[in-house]
Amino acid sequence: MQRVDPMAIVPEVMERIRTGAFLTVQAGDRINVMTIGWAGFGFLWGRQVASIMVRKTRFTFGLIEKSSEFTVSVPQTDMSAALNFCGSRSGKRVDKFKACGLELFPGSKVKTPVIKLPGVHFECAIVYKSPVDPKHLVESYAHLYPEKDYHTIYYGEIKKSYSTVDEE
After folding, report:
1. Which of 91-97's residues contact partners 24+ apart within 8 Å by CB, and which partners?
2. Which one, of 14, 40, 15, 11, lies nearest residue 153 by Cα?
3. Domains in the chain, ordered, with CATH?
4. What angle do CA 63, 1, 115 make, to 5 degrees?
5. What is the pLDDT of residues 109-121, one digit of tens each?
6. Whole-prediction pTM value?
7. DSSP category for residue 96
8. Which of 37, 61, 63, 133 is surrounded by the fewest CB atoms within 10 Å?
């Protein structure tokens, strides 16, 4: 595990997230993973922050609303099968970790575990959340919400970021 400056790797991470990353959330003894393809990284309130979005219609939404943290794992290798599965199945009905053979390891700065994979990982503490208000959304993005199932945006202060890159 090699500690990384999240802002130094933003371009690379954002390019990878376009093909998918894993968002892990834990509330009590319930843990779920879902695929994300939209995220942001930057400085807010003088801190390094990751922003992620979860729709209210997702099982993960119920967990993240009860949690104060999340982890993001951005694969270095092709994990398209697992990303597709985790993005198309509900954790309410299936154990996605087991179905995809995803292993976890404990977070070092947050209680939420991290997916064991070669890539970059972010351990985040939620500092703010805001539901998307369609009245303030530009019309050209309306097509992204045909079911009117708007996201809530979660801003997580990055408590730790590191790479577990596989050199082989």
Report:
1. 91/32, 91/33, 91/34, 91/59, 91/60, 92/59, 96/32, 96/33, 96/34, 97/31, 97/33
2. 40
3. 2-163 (2.30.110.10)
4. 25
5. 999 999 999 999 9
6. 0.93
7. H
8. 133
